[in-house]
Amino acid sequence: MSEATPVKLDRRGAVAVLTIDRADRRNALSRDALLAFGRLGRELVDDPEVRAIVITGAGDKAFCAGADLKERQGMSPDDVRRQVGLYRTDLGVLARSPKPVIAAINGVAFGGGLELALICDLRVAAPHAELALPETSLGIIPGAGGTQRLPRVVGEARAKEMILLGRRLTAPEALAWGLVNRVSPEGTPVVDDAIAWIEPIASGAPIAQAAALGAIDDGYDVPLSLGLEIERVHYDETLRSEDRLEALRAFAEKRKPVYKGR
C-alpha cells in the first residue's frame, strides 16, 4: 500500500523544508519516500520563489535510519537493484539541484540516511546526532553513493575507517572530521538553526549561487586548467544577470541589494 505523505513540504519564506514523516520507522527510506523526494525536488528546483531546500526527519530521534529493511525483506535481488536505482534518479534530483540543499540532521543518520545527507551541499547536525555507514556489517556496501561521496568529504582514510569498521560518529566528531558544517546549540531546533544559518543564501543572489555550485561540482575532479575554464564559463553566467547590476547599484547607494534571480 502506498503511503499518503511520506515526505512533507513546508515553506518558510524562500526556504523549502522537506521532512521525512515516518517517525515510527525511524524515517527510513521507503520506495514511496524516494519517489516523493523526486517529485517534490523537481517541483522546488523549478520554483523561482525557492532559494534553498532543507531536508530533515520527523521527531528528534532520527534524521533517517537508512533503507526500510522491513520493506526490503519481501524484495528479490532485482527489486533491490531497482530500489537502489531510485536513489540515483529521484534523490539525484536534489544532488544535482542548482539551489543549495542543506541537511538538518535531527538524530541518527545511518546508511542511506547518511547518504541522503551526503548529497546535500551543507550539513547541520543536532548535538545528539550520530552518523554512520554500517552496511558492511549487514553483508552489503553503501550503494547510494556513500563509497564515493564520503571520501570526497572526509578523505579516503577516514571514509575507509567509517565504512570498514562501521564506526559511528557523534556530532562533535563529525564536525571535527568535516562531515558536518555546523552543530546546533543545545536547546535550538536544528531546522530553525539551519534556516537562520543559511540566511545569506535565502536573501542572496540565486544566479550567482547556482553558478558557484556548478563551478565547484563540474570542476571538482578535473585538472586545474580545465577547472579554471569551467569557472570562467560559470562566471560569465553571472555577468549577464540583472542581479549583478543590482549589486553594483546597492553598493553605490549604500543599501542591501534585493536580488530577483534574473
**What is the rounded Rg?**
19 Å
Show unreliable segments. Answer: none
Name the CATH superfamily assignment of the largest domain. 2-enoyl-CoA Hydratase, Chain A, domain 1
Task: Supply the CATH class of the largest domain.
Answer: Alpha Beta
Secondary structure category: alpha/beta
CATH topology of the largest domain: 2-enoyl-CoA Hydratase, Chain A, domain 1
Major sheet details = 6 strands, mixed
- What distance separates the N and C termini? 43 Å
Record field, number of beta strands: 10
- Secondary-structure arrangement, i.e. CATH architecture of the largest domain: Alpha-Beta Complex
Number of domains: 2
Keywords: Lyase
Pfam families: ECH_1
GO molecular function, one term: enoyl-CoA hydratase activity
EC number: 4.2.1.17
Q: Concise description?
A:
By secondary structure, this protein is of the alpha/beta class. It is built from 13 helices and ten strands.
Structure characteristics:
about 260 residues; alpha/beta; 2-enoyl-CoA Hydratase, Chain A, domain 1; Lyase 2-enoyl-coa Hydratase, Chain  A, domain 2; 4-stranded mixed β-sheet; about 15% strand; globular
Characterise the protein shown here.
The protein is an alpha/beta fold. The chain has two domains: 7-202, 2-enoyl-CoA Hydratase, Chain A, domain 1 (Alpha-Beta Complex); 206-253, Lyase 2-enoyl-coa Hydratase, Chain  A, domain 2, CATH 1.10.12.10. 47% of the residues lie in helices and 15% in strands. It is built from 13 helices and ten strands. The chain has helices at residues 31-45, 69-72, 77-89, 92-95, 112-118, 146-154, 156-165, 171-177, 190-197, 199-202, 206-219, 224-239, 242-253, and strands at 7-12, 15-20, 52-57, 62-64, 101-105, 108-110, 122-125, 130-132, 169-170, 182-183. The chain has a six-stranded mixed beta sheet with strand order 1-2-3-5-7-10, sandwiched between helices. The longest helix is centred in the last third of the chain and has 16 residues, at 224-239. The relative contact order is 0.11.
